Amino acid sequence: MKHIKAIILMLLTSVICFTSFSVYAETNTLKASILNDYSFDGNSISEYAEDSVNTILDTTASTNFIANEINFDDTTFNKGISDLQSGNIDFLCMVPASDAFLAYVDYTSSPIATGFLGLYTTDYKQLYFEEFDTFNQIKIGLLKNSYIEKILSDFSAANNFTYIPVYYDTVDDMLNAVKNNLIDAIFTPTTNNPDGLKLIAKGGKLDYYCAVKKGNTNLLTKLNSAINQYKIQNPFYLSMEYTKLFKRPYSNSIGYTKEEQTAKKNHPKLRILAPDNNYPSSYYDKDTGEYNGIYEDIIKKVADNAGFEIEFISYDQSEMSMNGIVMGKADIILTVSGSKQGLTTATLPYTKVSYLPLVKKDTNIFEDSEIHVGILADDSWITDYLDDKYKQWSVEKYSSIDSLLTAVENDTVSAVLVSSTDLQTKTSLIAHPKLSILQDFDVEVPASIGVSNLTCNQHIVSLLNKTIQNVTLTNSELERKVYTLNHIYVPTVKDMLKTAMDIYNIACYNRDDRIHKMA
To answer: Are strands 332-336 and 269-275 parallel, antiparallel or unpaired?
Structure first.
């Protein structure tokens, strides 16, 4: 009997515990709606909102547990407020600070995310980037009960133009209106360039908050505590996903002037001269039939962001690149260090390449010395920079690494300049027995795109510059890419034999050097 009672007691305890756990689990599942009423193809913040909220709550759960699960869905202004008031949801995400919400919600003390706003119109509309004197009395589409209208009002006042607001029930109605020429533009939070529309003004930054039903201090306190704890742990939390999902696409959104749009329309494709055998910077992949490389990746992004088609043209020798420009067969040289003889205009640099001086061991020269310097013919693109920065130097070109190294070994030149990327990828430069890298200085050469003055005008240069500044590589990033690509490469038997011979020669040199010193 005692055993039966014990079993019954255990069963009752299990039922009570299970029931308590079920209630606990149910009460700790929250419902949140993402205010995403300006969502359309290529312009949604749902993923960003879920990532931001879940990251904050998961990271702080051990000390500030709020919920074991949050169910998200998208909503609009009216539905979101209605669901919050009726208790269908527990809180709203991605709510801008606006008077439109103040009667219904309490905001968290700090934002959970940051985005941007833009003014957009159709490609055929005669409105151009930040030409505000032409914006007066344009019709601008907004959603009804728009929480961003105050921002638009302040923006127009700051830029001295007036507008006529036109209100719509849905974002689809608003988009159809601008595409059918019923209004002139739309003002919207943005993640990317909306399809079929062009940017005519950047409207500034927009902070997003969580918001609870007015008076729900219990949940608000918990959310504030989680956000504040997360800020302490990650002071730059708004800069992480925000940079990837908002800032970079927003920065890359190109606003065309009238002249730039005309130039792009008249010259939609850029023909680009590119080396085909300079792995990993620029090379032709015979297996895929495509041009690849670190520099190609950059120019592809630049051209895509600026709206150009591209065609790569191969050249085998550096001198041929300028011939291609002179003969009008090409519009772009992939890598230059300055404008050339009035034939090309250099864009802003997209990276910098470090060149290190190699000299004979126990030799010392200085940056301001009058010296004779050797470079590879493949590096001829740096001569414009050298001629401008180091006027006291004379420069000689060599066709191969071996001839370049022989020149400095035989004192034909005082030093040779070798790029840090070549030092990583060319085995004959590694631990050379007779040469050393000069520690006193190095040469950082800015790498730009050379635009033909014969086939392109300055408005094309301007368009390229607008995108280059957002896809630049620092020198350290460039070298990391080279290192990664070089170490993915599987060496051939020839490479391994060459490396073995280099190591043997170094060992022989060191042995002979020791014998000579002992004698």
So the answer is: parallel
Tokens of 368: 């301001």
Secondary structure element (H or E) that encloses residue 290, with its range: strand 290-292
Integer-rounded Cα radius of gyration of the chain: 32
Q: Record the tokens describing residue 496, joined without a space.
A: 């391994």
Residue with tokens 């004698």: 519
Is the pLDDT reported for residue 192 higher than 50? Answer: yes
- Contact (Cβ atoms closer than 8 angstroms) between residue 40 and residue 172: yes
- In sign, the C-alpha dihedral spanning 430, 431, 434, 436 is positive
Cα–Cα distance, 117 to 138 (Å, whole number): 18
Q: Are 414 and 373 in contact (CB under 8 A)?
A: yes
Residue-wise pLDDT tens digits, 74-106: 999 999 999 999 999 999 999 999 888 999 999
Counting residues of the chain whose pLDDT is more than 70, the rounded percentage is 79
Spatial separation of the C-alpha atoms in residues 257 and 131, rounded to whole Å: 8
* Alpha-carbon distances of 38 from 82, 445, 514, rounded to whole Å: 18, 45, 76
Characterise 204 by phi-psi region: left (phi > 0), alpha (psi -120 to 50), beta (else).
left
27 SS3 class: helix
What's CA 157's distance to the chain center, in Å? 32
Is there a contact between 419 and 486 (Cβ–Cβ < 8 Å)?
no
Question: Rounded to an integer, what distance in angstroms lies between the CA atom of residue 206 and that of residue 212?
Answer: 19
Residue in this structure with the two tokens 């790498």, named with its chain if needed: 447
Half-sphere exposure of 188 (CA within 13 A, CB side): 32
Phi, psi of 369 (to 5 degrees): -75, 150
Tell me the sheet residues that pair with 274: 314
Q: How far apart are CA 98 and CA 47, in angstroms?
A: 23
- The mean pLDDT value of the chain amounts to 82
Helix (H, G, I), strand (E, B), or coil: what is residue 457? coil
| CA 314/CA 275 separation, integer angstroms | 6
Amino acid at 88: N
DSSP 100-125: TTTTTEEE-SS-SEEEEEEEEEETTS
pTM of the model: 0.62
Neighbours of 205 (CB within 10 A): 14
335 in helix, strand or coil? strand
Helix (H, G, I), strand (E, B) or coil at 197: strand
